[in-house]
Design brief:
The chain is an alpha/beta fold. The protein has one domain: Rossmann fold. Helix content is 46%, strand content 18%. The chain is built from eight helices and seven strands, in the order E-H-E-H-E-H-E-H-E-H-E-H-H-E-H. Strands 4-3-2-1-5-6-7 form a seven-stranded parallel sheet, with helices on both faces. Helix 1 (21-35) packs parallel to helix 2 and helix 1 packs parallel to helix 8 (170-181). The longest helix is centred in the middle third of the chain and has 16 residues, at 113-128. The chain is globular.
Length: 182
C-alpha cells in the first residue's frame, strides 16, 4: 500500500451471500475502487464486507479489514479471505470509530441497524466538525427511502442533508468518489 493512497471505508450488511445482487454490487464496488487506486477498508467479515474485499483483491487492490473481539464472541468468524491487512480492536465502539476516523471517504451499501449506525456516526461527526469533511455516498434505493423519510428540513438543515450524496449504483458511487477526491 502506498502512503498516498486514499482509504475508502465501505459499510454494509453482513447478510448478502455470494451471487446475490447486493454481494455482487459490493464486489463491483471493491473492484472499481481498487482500479481507481483507492484502498478498500471494511469491517472485515461476510456479506457486503466480503464482496467489496473480494472485488478489490481481484483487481490487485489493498484491503484493510477492521475486526473486533466483541463481535467474534457472539458471532464467531474470521476475517474474510481477501483481507490483506487486519486492524484488530477489542470493542465494537473502537472498531466503529476506527472505520469512521481513518478514512478519506465512505460508501454505504444496503444494510441494517449496524450499517445505519455507521452512516449516522460518520454523518454526525462530519456535521459537527468532530472529523474533517469527507465524502459520504450511499448506494441504492434503501438509503434514498430512509434518508427521504428522515431528513425533514425542520430537523436536518439543507446544508447538513447535502453532506450525504446518493448514488443509484456502485459504478455511480465510485465515479462520484473519484470526483470528490481527485
Amino acid at each position: 500500500m502506498s502512503s498516498n493512497q486514499k482509504v475508502i471505508s465501505v459499510f454494509g450488511s453482513s447478510a448478502p451471500r455470494p451471487g446475490s445482487a447486493d454481494y455482487e454490487a459490493a464486489r463491483t464496488l471493491g473492484r472499481l475502487l481498487a482500479q481507481a487506486g483507492f484502498v478498500v477498508q471494511t469491517g472485515s467479515y461476510s456479506g457486503v464486507m466480503a464482496g467489496a474485499s473480494q472485488g478489490a483483491c481481484e483487481a490487485d487492490g489493498h484491503v484493510i479489514g477492521v475486526t473486533c473481539s466483541q463481535i467474534e464472541q457472539y458471532r464467531p468468524m474470521p476475517p474474510n479471505q481477501w483481507v490483506k491487512e487486519q486492524i484488530r480492536h477489542q470493542t465494537l465502539r473502537e472498531r466503529l470509530l476506527y472505520l469512521v476516523d481513518y478514512c478519506d471517504g465512505a460508501i454505504v451499501m444496503p444494510g441494517g441497524i449496524g450499517t445505519l449506525s455507521e452512516l449516522a456516526l460518520i454523518w454526525s461527526f462530519v456535521q459537527t466538525g468532530e472529523i474533517a469533511p469527507r465524502p459520504i455516498i450511499t448506494v441504492g434505493g434503501l438509503w434514498q427511502r430512509t434518508l427521504a423519510a428522515f431528513t425533514d428540513s425542520g430537523y436536518v438543515r439543507p446544508d447538513h442533508q447535502a453532506l450525504i450524496t446518493v448514488a443509484r449504483t456502485a459504478d455511480e458511487a465510485v465515479k462520484k468518489m473519484i470526483g470528490y477526491l481527485s
